Amino acid sequence: MTQHDRPKTAIVVATESLSGAQNRAIKIYRALKNDGYPVELWLNPALKRLIAADYPAEADDAIEYRAGGPIHRLLRPLQRSKRLWAMLENSGLPALVGEPRFERLATQRGIELAHIFLDLQIGHVRNLPTIFELTSPDIADTMGSQPLARRRSHTLYHAVSPSVARRFSALSPNTSMVEANGPFFSRRVEPITVIKENTVVFAHRFIPRKNAVLFARVARRFVDRRPDWRVQILGRGSMEEEVRSAIKGVADKVEVAFTSDLAAALSQSRVFVSLIQPDNYPSQSVLEAMSLGNALLLSDTGDSVSKFLGGNGVATDLNEDAILHNLLELVSDEAELDRMADRSRELVDERFSARAYLDHLRSLYATTVEIGS
């Protein structure tokens, strides 16, 4: 045993919005804390207020932190030019300036390691090891394209999935990175028991790679063919107007909305659809849908089939006719649909262990502190 076996860790989410990655960070904090691990949750004040209804205990625990400071605001305009930003980073000035506000708070609170989610503004933290979480292909692309000095400002990168790891490695092959041993998912302690309805749910941000508009077009045709079913397209984002436009005329059967309580919708639905590019894995929404007894219709992208499917759903090509055909086939056999729902629940327990993930994280934290010391 060494002094680094259980470094006091800050899980840092300095963004203002709440989506899958932020939810996962908060749940990881909760699980580590409940496991007796020395951990704190640092949140942007706006995010702290936003989570109060769904995570009251975690909101009460959270330490308020807003990234940046006067020097960072002064330097930020240079980021608009890749060439100027690269010159600045490679000059060594950002490393010299560091993150004074972050560093002071870490010292005051006895933090020995920071695990950073989503915030690309935090870098060059002096005298403190940092892990940057690669939460998605978008984040991997953005961070992998940063100037070399910026990429090397973190002690270690942690990739949420094999496809994200491959993407980041292709852009930054000589950067220290560890791939997660699986997704973090903790089954609800108290199962939600309601009567299942003939409902299909799609729940993702309305951005191009998640294909909400494509599914909205499918949903319009689906409810024409199966008027005994309804569809919920849950989310929000830059493409919401296009999603709503695609379902004009069938809004009584296809609902477009946002909910902070996805579990309530998934507890009564029978089918969950996810069409993410380049990979559905390790979507928290898919895991939640499985745990609450939904058959799956997934795009055949990335590691989706090998990780999520096993007698509990079907994969589809990403074109409108193929998705519609597979969805109609999926709902055509009531008994098979029920069997797939049961299999989804079983697969969550068989493949996705919260304990294994937490053990991986504890080992990662200890190793990172040793590397950074």
Automatic annotation (TrEMBL):
One of its GO terms (molecular function) is transferase activity. It holds the Pfam family Glyco_trans_1_4. The keyword Cytoplasm does not apply. Keywords: Transferase. The keyword Transferase applies. It comes from the Bacteria. This is Glycosyltransferase. It comes from Aurantiacibacter aquimixticola. The lineage of its organism: Bacteria, Pseudomonadati, Pseudomonadota, Alphaproteobacteria, Sphingomonadales.
